[in-house]
Write a structure and sequence with these properties.
With 143 residues, the chain is an alpha+beta fold. It has helices at residues 3-10, 23-33, 53-63, 89-99, 118-141, and strands at 16-17, 37-41, 47-52, 103-108, 111-117. The protein has a single domain, classed as CBS-domain.
């Protein structure tokens, strides 16, 4: 299965923010949207980084409540793992595992076309394995 199939099923909507937004704004957006990460974009829409719940929790532990007044640029992860819609789920899962990242923007011709999470990837993989298992069971029962 390819990333494009995941996006087809879940949709391609990506929640974004800017580097000059406050951490408090980012936290409110994460809560409102019920998501784990927000893509940070430049003025031209290209990815600049990502800010996650985990980033905010770590920042609060290090800085305290004053962190909420800081800007997303002060806390965001700047080096991003990205993938194309044509990437296989297996390759993306390996990248997420080795890079210890939970969200990956999907780019096509340097344009953001979606974002996938580790949950999306695992769900897709489980669905594939269940389908293969059903096919094997059917083959054994009905040779």
């Amino acid at each position: 299965m390819h990333v494009a199939q995941i996006l087809k099923e879940k949709g391609s909507r990506v929640v974004t923010t800017t580097a000059d937004a406050t951490i408090a704004d980012a936290a409110r957006t994460l809560r409102r949207e019920r998501i784990g990460a927000i893509l940070v974009t430049n003025d031209d829409g290209t990815p600049a980084g990502i800010i996650s719940e985990r980033d905010i929790v770590r920042g609060l532990a290090d800085t305290g409540a004053s962190l909420l007044e800081k800007h997303v640029a002060d806390l965001m992860t700047r080096s991003l793992f990205t993938c194309a819609p044509s990437a296989t789920v297996e390759a993306v899962m390996e990248e997420m595992t080795s890079g210890r990242c939970r969200h990956i923007p999907v780019l096509e011709d340097n344009v953001v076309v979606g974002m996938i999470s580790i949950g999306d990837v695992v769900r897709s993989r489980v669905d594939t394995l269940e389908s293969e298992s059903d096919q094997l069971k059917n083959y054994i029962v009905n040779p």
